[in-house]
TrEMBL record:
One of its GO terms (cellular component) is RNA polymerase III complex. Residues 2-88 form the RNA polymerase Rpb5 N-terminal domain. GO terms for biological process: transcription by RNA polymerase II; transcription elongation by RNA polymerase I; tRNA transcription by RNA polymerase III. It is found in: Nucleus. Belongs to the archaeal Rpo5/eukaryotic RPB5 RNA polymerase subunit family. Keywords: Nucleus, Transcription. InterPro entries: Arch_Rpo5/euc_Rpb5 (IPR014381), RNA_pol_Rpb5_N (IPR005571), RNA_pol_Rpb5_N_sf (IPR036710), RNA_pol_subH/Rpb5_C (IPR000783), RPB5-like_sf (IPR035913). Gene3D superfamilies: RNA polymerase, Rpb5, N-terminal domain, RPB5-like RNA polymerase subunit. This is RNA polymerase Rpb5, Cterminal domain containing protein. GO terms for molecular function: DNA binding; DNA-directed RNA polymerase activity. The lineage of its organism: Eukaryota, Amoebozoa, Discosea, Longamoebia, Centramoebida. Residues 131-203 form the RNA polymerase subunit H/Rpb5 C-terminal domain. The keyword Secreted does not apply. It comes from the Eukaryota.
Amino acid sequence: MDEVGRVFLVRKTVLQMLQDRGYIVPQSDLDMDRDSFRSKFMGESALNREALTLLMQKKDDPTDQIFVFWPEDLKVGVRPVKKYCDRMKEEAVFRAIVIIQQTLTAFAKQVFAEMAPRYTIEHFQEAELLVNITEHILVPKHKLLTELEKQTLLAKYKLEDSQLPRIQVNDPVARYYGLQKGQVVKIIRPSETAGRYVTYRLVV
């Protein structure tokens, strides 16, 4: 698969991921075909990754925004990462996703770590996003509970959150939804007898 075809698929998954996280994603972006993608983002000799940068806002809170950055380098070092961090600070955007072609250097990871907890910066390799894992038939529907919904659930069943089954924060589905430690996710599976089977998991 050529670079344009690969990044087209990755971008589509990223847009679906943002929509599933509650961000406003234009339908025209979701519906863009490969030829339109090529004509919009292909430069004279290479893909213009800078032009792929996204800035989206949450449906229920326009001040809750997220950047998606697409570094040019195969191995991403400190320089582009610091540039992204500076832009986040300048525009008061506290969350970002960086799409890595191959690897992130240890020094770049350290820069991300130093931005926490005020700034949340996730990174995915392109290979992880070629397909949308949540569309797989074996992956049940996941829904993040609000803090109020979480407390209502715990009160209803007289539980501490530590008594709930767990899902690791680095689980592929947890990463897709951007789940954070301490949150609770509702998992809905189809059931032949009950129609659907609901469980809850604590992110750890």
